[in-house]
Design goal:
There is one protein chain. 27% of the residues are buried. It contains 10 helices and no strands. With 200 residues, the chain is mainly α. The protein folds into 2 domains: 48 residues, Homeodomain-like (Arc Repressor Mutant, subunit A); 140 residues, Tetracycline Repressor, domain 2, CATH 1.10.357. The longest helix has 25 residues. It is elongated, with a radius of gyration of 18 Å.
Length: 200
């Protein structure tokens, strides 16, 4: 089925991609502010001149990291969308994706929420990049809920996004099985409000 397409993936110079891959791993595993430029340069096996040539500053790299995480998630959702014409099935596929993430080795919560907690200024470019992803995800869920006839797709999307946030945090700080089960129950409650399902 058709959804908002992910951004087009562009090939990067090998050194630039290596820096981004290093940031993707270290920022998520250790925290964005905990990882300095010198460490990024050393682990990426590039020179300082090469780092600044490609990214200019750490903040710019952080924004690129958030965009990269968004791209990966959007591509995964798009692949699921190409495999079905059923919007409810796609909602279930998105749920399954989140459950797999929560139970995966090395899971440290939502990378977007993690970034937001480290940048308190809502006008900062990093926060704007996080907001872009969250608005995209909310709109995706709202459009799918509208497609299956939910009477309040915007409100229901709010509920699912908040449930995702809680499951990401609870899955990392608490019990991933319980967090996944709670997220499943929220999806079930939201889908049960669709008139045809409610009448069944």
């Amino acid at each position: 089925m058709d959804i908002v397409k992910p951004p087009k993936r562009h090939s990067l110079a090998p050194a630039k991609q290596r820096i981004l891959d290093t940031a993707d791993r270290l920022f998520y595993d250790e925290g964005i502010r905990a990882v300095g430029i010198d460490r990024l340069i050393a682990v990426s096996s590039v020179t300082k001149a090469t780092f600044y040539k490609h990214y200019g500053s750490k903040d710019r790299l952080i924004v690129e990291y958030i965009a990269y995480r968004h791209l990966q998630f959007a591509e995964t959702v798009d692949a699921a969308a190409q495999a079905t014409d059923d919007p409810e099935q796609l909602l279930r596929d998105i749920l399954a994706l989140q459950v797999r993430l929560i139970s995966s080795p090395g899971f440290r919560g939502c990378p977007f929420l993690n970034a937001a907690t480290e940048f308190t200024d809502g006008a900062h470019p990093v926060r704007r990049a996080v907001d872009h992803h969250r608005e995209w995800f909310h709109d995706l869920l709202e459009n799918l809920l509208r497609a299956i006839g939910h009477p309040l797709p915007g409100d229901a999307s709010d509920d699912l996004v908040l449930a995702h946030d809680g499951a990401m945090l609870g899955g990392y700080a608490g019990d991933p099985v319980a967090a996944s089960a709670a997220l499943q129950r929220m999806y079930d409650r939201v889908l049960a409000a669709v008139p045809e399902r409610a009448a069944a």
